[in-house]
Amino acid sequence: MNLFRTTALVLALTTGLSSMPALADAVQENASGDPMYTVEAPPAYAMIGDLLIARPFLIAATAVGAVAFVVSLPFTAASGSVGKAGQALVVDPGKEAFVRCLGCTTSGYNHDES
Hints:
The protein is an all-alpha fold.
């Protein structure tokens, strides 16, 4: 790469990453402050990005995690941490890939469970 492209890339990445803390406070709380009652309404571009980019990576992470879980099963069984390994390697990526609403940032169903 030439010097101009490298400088432009570094400047763009620095600007983008420095704006992340400002966006972190943009989440609105509900009236009660309870996260259970927070409803997310993601915009269309977030849903499209989630569908085309995040979901395939999360599905792949679930598959790789399942393989890693099976490979590590003898060691985790010996230490008694099979549940923790399964939760971290298979269940958590699976919940993010298959249970989280499209474009949302929190996992779980988006309906009333009463």
